[in-house]
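LAB NOTEBOOK - FOLDING QUEUE
OPERATOR: T.R.
BATCH SIZE: 2
PURPOSE: Compare the predicted C-alpha cell outputs for two unrelated chains run back to back under identical settings.
PRIORITY: normal
REVIEWER: second-year student, initials M.K.

ITEM 1
FIELD SEQUENCE / FIELD STRUCTURE:
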Amino acid sequence: MVVLGLILLIIGLIAKISILTTIGAILLVVGLVLNLVPMGGNTRRVW
C-alpha cells in the first residue's frame, strides 16, 4: 500500500493531476500507519 501510494503521488505530481496526488498521499499515510501499528495483538514485529 505504501508503494502504491508513492507511485500515485509521483504520477500525480508529474502529470499535475490533483486527485491522484491526494489519493497517493492518503494511501501513503494509511500504509505507514498500518505498518507501524501491531496487528492481532502481537506486540513483536516480524520483519
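ITEM 2
FIELD SEQUENCE / FIELD STRUCTURE:
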Amino acid sequence: MKIKKEFCMRNICGENTLVPIGETALSFKGIIKVNNIGSFIWNNLESAKNEDEIVSMVMDKYDLELNEARSNVDDFIKYLKNVNII
C-alpha cells in the first residue's frame, strides 16, 4: 500500500502520532494518535504485499487470533483511507 509522504510517525510525549508535514499541514489541522498496533501496521504498510500479510504480521507480533488481527488491520486501514492518507 502506498502512504502519502505528507505524514510521518512521531512519538510525542510518549504517544505515537501521525503528523502532517509540508503542504498537508496547512489543510489537515491536527495530529492523529495511534496505538501500538496502529504504529506497527503503519511501519509495515509499504513493505507488506497485501492486507493479508499485514494481518499475519499483526497476529505474530501481538499473539492475536485471526478475527481480532483482521479487525484491527481493517479498522486502521479504513481510517487511513477515510482521511486520505493512503
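REVIEWER COMMENT (ITEM 2): The chain is about 50% helix and 15% strand.
FOLLOW-UP: none requested
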